[in-house]
Amino acid sequence: LLVGPIENERQEELLPQNILDAIIKHPDIIHIPWSDQVEYILAISDILVHASYREGFPNVPLQAAAMECPIICSNIPGNIDIVSNNKTGLWFEVGNQDSLAEKIEYALQNPSSMALYAERIRREVEEKYSREYIHQELLKFYHKKLENLSCEPALSS
């Protein structure tokens, strides 16, 4: 199951036409260009492969973690802030097909390890990304900034 658009924005990301044709015509590959019902897709998925070249705040891995879906992701900023390699998921070297294939093969051969990673990351996400936690941390940050401002000497005119 492939979910999301096939992006060909950068020259190095272009998929050859024969690969695109193979994806479209293969009887065992289902491509869904878009869905806003991510929770249902993640619930039936064995693993999430997040092969992104760039991320800000990685919502897709967070969604997978919340659904306790095992994660394989590229080792880029954002992803590596959420997923700990060999603890809560697996990283592969961005742009390296062999590294990605190795991680997928490992995941398929070791479902119990992947289930453990998924359980760990779900717990982490519940703790670190709950609204309450984010609000508390933001409040601490604001208080600290305000304390620093009140400690600075007033500028004389």
Q: Can you characterise this structure?
A:
With 157 residues, this protein is mainly α. It has seven helices and five strands; from the N terminus they run E-H-E-H-E-H-E-H-E-H-H-H. It has helices spanning 17-25, 38-43, 59-66, 79-82, 97-109, 111-128, 131-151; strands spanning 2-3, 31-32, 48-50, 71-74, 90-92. Strands 3-4-5 form a three-stranded parallel β-sheet, with helices on both faces. A two-stranded parallel sheet has the order 1-2. The longest helix has 21 residues, at 131-151. It is elongated. The mean pLDDT is 91.
Give a brief rundown of this model.
By secondary structure, the chain is mostly helical.
Helix content: 40-55%
Q: Considering the protein shown, what is the CATH homologous superfamily of the domain at 35-128?
A: Glycogen Phosphorylase B
The gyration radius over C-alpha positions equals: 20 Å
User: What's the overall geometry?
Assistant: elongated
Query: Helical segment tally?
Result: 7
Overall residue-averaged pLDDT value:
91
What is the terminal separation in angstroms?
A: 67 Å
Q: State the order of secondary-structure elements, H for helix, E for strand.
A: EHEHEHEHEHHH
| Strand content range | 5-15%
Which architecture of the domain at 35-128 per CATH? 3-Layer(aba) Sandwich
Look at the helices and sheets and give the structural class. Answer: mainly alpha
Largest sheet: 3 strands, parallel
Low-confidence stretches: none
Number of strands: 5
The CATH topology assignment of the domain at 35-128 is Rossmann fold
